[in-house]
Amino acid sequence: MRVLAAMSGGVDSAVAAARMAEAGHDVVGVHLALSRNPQSYRSGARGCCTIEDSRDARRAADVIGIPFYIWDLAERFHADVVEDFVAEYAAGRTPNPCLRCNEKVKFSAVLDRALALEFDAVATGHYAQIVETPHGRELHRAVDPAKDQSYVLGVLTQQQLKHAFFPLGDTNKTEIRAEAECRGLSVAAKPDSHDICFIADGNTPGFLSKQLGESPGDIVDAQGNKLGEHKGTHGFTVGQRKGLKIGTPAADGKPRFVLDISPVDRTVTVGSRAELAVERLTASKPRWCGPAPTETLHVKAQLRAHGEEIAVTARLEDDQVLVEFDEPADAVAPGQAVVLYDGTRVIGSATIDTVERATQKV
Amino acid sequence: MTSSARRTVYLDHAATTPMLPAAIEAMTSHLGRTGNASSLHGSGRAARRTVEESRETIAEALNAQPSEVVFTSGGTEADNLALKGLWWARLAENPRRRRILLSGVEHHAVLDPAIWLAQHEGAEIEWLPVDQLGRVRPDDVQHAIEQDPESVSFVTLMMANNEVGTLQPVTGVAALAKAYDIPVHTDAVQAVGQVPVDFAALGVDAMTISGHKVGGPYGIGSLVVRKETKLVPIVHGGGQERDVRSGTLDHPATAGFAVAVEHAVKHQAELAERLTTLRNALIEGVIGTVPGAELSGDPTGRLPGNAHLSFKDCEGDSLLLLLDARGIEVSTGSACNAGVAEPSHVLLAMGYDDQRARGSLRFTLGHTSTRADVDAVLENIGPVVERAMSAGLQNVGRNN
After folding, report:
1. What's the alpha-carbon Rg for chain A, to the nearest Å?
2. pLDDT tens digit string along A223-267?
3. pLDDT tens digits, residue range A260-287?
4. CATH classification of B21-266 is 3.40.50.12780, yes or no?
5. How far apart are CA B211 and CA B43, in angstroms?
6. In whole angstroms, what is the distance from residue A8 CA to residue A55 CA?
7. DSSP letters along A171-197, please?
8. pTM, whole model, 2 decimals?
9. Do B339 and A33 touch (CB under 8 A)?
10. Concatenated DSSP letters for B326-367?
11. Where along chain A do the CATH 3.40.50.620 domains lie?
């Protein structure tokens, strides 16, 4: 098979490319240039879009012995991922840009171009597993729970999965580093990338303030009493506890959490952990890895990257996914994806729109 | 689509051309011989003899004096030496000399030193216009000089463009600049071996040539510079090469370089004739096969080995990838900016729009090229362009 290996310059995608080549595929390495103004060198362990990273990717491709090209996806990435990220925060939601990138860039723009250019599939260094079954391909969690990235791949449809390879899903990260060392890949000891690749300094609030400007407003409790002020609602995420900077402590002395973000009246509502608890949510724009479910599901849900699995009852109604938690759940942030799992298998995902809190019923 | 056991069709001779067996022989025969050409003892004398004989061979082939041949590490260094060396020498004589006349189609090894001089040394770049075929008009040079001859530092104009192959009227420009005693530099890296190159007849003050572009070794080139032309050195040290370019001479490389230049010049006419036939077959074949394909650059006044073609609605990057997968090696001719291919500055200077500039491929033939190479292109170009178009449209269609 002719396989395009997306190579970020990191250890994972390098080993993924090497494994595909070793398996006998005709592999071509492609580094995706995603930044309009790439930095020359990495600073710290963030990001994957510096010129040094593209050189690392090229060097790895040379060691593996595969052709290597750089594809400029900066415009596309900016329009589909960065602008979406900023717009979602501006709307008081908490987006996951990695998920959006997989959906719109890696397994859409890149995959489409790859298929047009005679490739059969795209391979990445994501930690997830694809299982072939008589009724199609299934997406499963990786064996390494600490590295599992099935959550950010939960947006992939059967059509996209048919052309995807995740060669690392069956291996622990420590073994991948050892394997990279054995294969003579100089990126073996390169630190893992963290956080959001297009925010080089890791300062998301600072990035958002630059994009959205300051728009001060009030921090209030559920009853509408003003507790403090903030510089912009985009600095907050539902469920956030730290950094609220409220002078007066709560009457019961317990910590307060962000319950709701309303950019229209610039209000951030806070409350107790009990008030945070959510019983139900609705989510839109569902993406199913296989056929869309026709019956009510009793399955597990994950509500954010590296989040816990929660038992839920879910059903699809028109184009909305209605999810009910068996036990009330914390920190359910609109904008994040709810990814549904049947055991290790990813059923699909949808974007959280609204939540219904336990206290709202009282 | 497997790439094993397939002949490589190398059509990127403008990037580098295979070393001639005789040049390899000459170079390798010297590699084992110890000797610093600056040493006074026997080993040094032997090395110096090799260097000087090489210098004489190159000078004779290009109709220059041996003392006019200054060895450098390659074309880029020779261009830097010419531009910076002329700049500082001319400025020292007259602080008003700040205008550098050049066109936007020059190689980066000329463009970038000029821009550096503008950014750091107060040079004023005066861009000479080019027409749609990439040609500079001598009248425009005349006009630019006449505005204030005394303020011109120098003129630089390449003999042949490395991307589109267009030949420039260097002799005419040198003649008119001479009337004002303004020095002229030419980058002849692509020209040697493809068109006649006669340093004395050109009338320029300095001329850049390169080893690996003519079948010689990498890492060596020369600035051929008239004896009376003053240059401020940019590499200081032991005072080699008339004190203009210090550094221990690579005598094995000079030997290989000399053999290559001598051979290239001696066989220039027959090579040009053979390449012109092959190249025309390639151009006509591609244009006949691919609707909308167009030749860039001057159809007649061009390098015999250059076929630069632009294709509608597809990206050069895609074409290159698809041809590479079929063992056909070509270039998009575009430079990389931060690792990402930018549309060629040459094509933009010629008035191409961004899209057409991106949809271009440069095929360059050289001494090892055959009819089979051309046939391989003609066999594959149709389906490759079709594929690349679908990839291009794929991206456009989804981008909403």
Report:
1. 21
2. 888 999 998 898 898 988 888 878 777 777 788 899 999 998 999
3. 999 989 999 999 888 889 999 999 999 9
4. no
5. 25
6. 10
7. S-HHHHHHHHHHTT-GGGGPPPPBS-T
8. 0.90
9. yes
10. TTEE-B--PPEETTEEPPPHHHHHTT--HHHHHTEEEEE--T
11. 2-189
pLDDT tens digits for B309-318? 999 999 999 9
Start and end residues for every CATH 3.90.1150.10 domain found in chain B? 9-18+268-398
Tell me whether residues B399 and A108 touch, CB distance under 8 A.
no
A109 touches chain B (CB under 8 A): yes
Alpha-carbon distances, residue B51 vs A112, B24, B28, B248 (angstroms): 56, 16, 14, 11
Beta-strand relationship, B306-310 and B328-329 = unpaired
In the set B336, B338, B340, B372, the catalytic residue is B336
Long-range contacts of B288-295 (CB under 8 A, 24+ apart): B289/B378, B289/B381, B289/B382, B290/B381, B290/B382, B290/B385, B293/B385
Catalytic machinery residues of A: 101, 197
What span, in angstroms and rounded, lies between the C-alpha atoms of B361 and B308? 6
Q: A277-361: what fold?
A: Elongation Factor Tu (Ef-tu); domain 3 (2.40.30)
A222 in contact with B at a CB cutoff of 8 Å? no
Place of tokens 């991206």: B395
Amino acid at B152: V
Q: Provide CATH 2.30.30.280 ranges for chain A.
A: 214-275
Give the span between the Cα atoms of A345 and A328, in whole angstroms. 23
List the single residue in A with minimal CA-CA distance to B319. A117
Domain B9-18+268-398's class? alpha beta
A118 vs B317, B325, B339: nearest CB: B325
Q: Are B317 and B332 in contact (CB under 8 A)?
A: yes
Among A219, A312, A208, residue whose Cα is nearest residue A262: A219
Phi-psi region of A27 (alpha: psi -120 to 50; beta: other; left: phi over 0): beta
pLDDT confidence tier of residue A118, bands split at 50, 70 and 90: very high
Best of A68, A72, A103 to disrupt the B interface (most B CBs within 10 Å) is A72
pLDDT value at position A199? Answer: 85
Is A113–B322 a contact, with Cβ atoms under 8 angstroms apart?
A: no
Tokens 């290009």 belong to B62
Region(s) of chain B under CATH 3.40.640.10: 21-266
For the domain spanning A2-189, the CATH number is 3.40.50.620
Q: Which two tokens stand for residue A166?
A: 């995740």
Cβ within 8 Å, pair A70-B399? no
Chain B residue numbers touching A54 (CB-CB < 8 A): 339
> What is the ipTM for the molecules in this complex?
0.86
Residue span(s) of chain A under CATH 2.40.30.10 come to 277-361
Q: Does the domain formed by A214-275 have CATH 2.30.30.280? A: yes
Q: Determine the pLDDT at residue A43.
A: 55
